[in-house]
Specification:
Elements lengths: L6 E5 L9 H14 L2 E4 L11 H4 L1 H17 L4 E3 L2 H20 L1 H13 L11 E3 H17 L8 E4 L3 H5 L14 H8 L3 E3 L17 H17 L4 E4 L2 H9 L1 H8 L7 E3 H8 L17 H6 L4
Parallel strand pairs: 1-2, 1-3, 3-4, 5-6, 5-7, 7-8
Helix pairs in contact: 1-12, 3-4, 3-5, 4-5, 6-8, 9-11
Length: 302
């Protein structure tokens, strides 16, 4: 059992507060049920989802140094439930820690910009951690299993990690970036069956969507098709941006690839919360574009 409650500085990201509000809702419901305290970083800015550096690396580093500094003010690790945010902010944190040793003037320049705007300087003292790894390493799978009230036995889940979560940072202490198992271990913990397929560690196609929409949809369609072929009842992702491309845009994906798909896509927080007996309405499952009713019916929840 946990000796003391977990507490994090929470960076929810943009998509979960806008286009996919159900993911913000479900993360709140899950962490409250587990007794995890989230102090939301209300003053945080968008991480840029990897686009800021296309114009300026300094811009990306400064914006996200500020985001990390907000967590440092609270003396807490920064928690995100988004693979993309984890990749971008975690990579900035990693790069600035290296720069502090090799090129301290660069970090001083960033801190000068922050202080000039009335912000706290970046110190490199707060860990940037995704919800998945906070649950697996800090909370513990055994503790989650102890709290399961509704086993998800019989549900076949296909993970979709999101490329930023696995490969944006050079150091990956919690999982294997090539052959990850953290999501699959969570599935087993709540009674579900992991489904393995080729695309589970690849890009969903979202980064292409702004300039190569057809290619983006083809990528998403390939992954969904492969998961269905392996017998998946649903796809589960720890990334709101992947969720947006795989769920919200699935009808458009179907048109591009000329094939009906209809595979429900859940965020990791929603899946775990269902196993804790949290009602689907509390998790925003009715907001999904692809109906989650087949999942709920299979679990005897509908």
């Amino acid at each position: 059992m946990l000796t003391q409650p977990l507490k994090y500085a929470y960076f929810p990201g943009c998509v979960a507060q806008g286009a996919c509000k159900e993911l913000y809702q479900s993360t709140q419901a899950l962490t409250q049920a587990l007794g995890i305290e989230l102090i939301e970083l209300k003053k945080a800015a968008c991480c840029g989802s990897g686009t800021f550096k296309e114009d300026s690396q300094l811009l990306e580093d400064t914006v996200n140094a500020r985001n990390i500094a907000l967590a440092e003010e609270l003396n807490l690790p920064l928690l995100t439930h988004c693979s993309t945010c984890q990749g971008v902010i975690g990579h900035v944190d990693e790069r600035l820690k290296q720069a502090a040793q090799k090129d301290p003037r660069y970090v001083e320049k960033i801190n000068g910009l922050l202080v000039a705007e009335g912000c706290s300087p970046y110190r490199g003292t707060s860990e940037v951690k995704h919800l998945l790894y906070a649950l697996v390493t800090d909370y513990g799978l055994a503790e989650i299993q102890r709290r399961v009230t509704k086993t998800l036995q019989g549900l076949k889940c296909a993970s979709f990690y999101g490329c930023y979560l696995l490969r944006a940072q050079s150091s990956m202490p919690y999982d294997d970036p090539i052959r990850p198992e953290a999501m699959e271990n969570v599935f087993r913990t709540v009674g579900a069956t992991p489904i393995y397929y080729r695309g589970r560690t690849q890009c969903c196609g979202w980064p292409l969507a702004s300039y190569a929409m057809t290619e983006s949809f083809k990528m998403a369609g390939t992954h969904i098709t492969e998961a269905i072929a392996e017998g998946a009842d649903c796809m589960v992702t720890p990334c709101p941006l992947c969720h947006l491309n795989l769920d919200s845009r699935q009808p458009e994906v179907e048109k591009v690839i000329g094939k009906k798909l209809g595979l429900p896509v859940l965020h990791l927080s929603q899946l775990i919360a269902l196993s804790l007996g949290i009602a689907p309405k509390q998790l925003g499952l009715e907001r999904h574009i692809i109906s989650t009713k087949p999942v709920l019916e299979k679990l005897g929840i509908a």
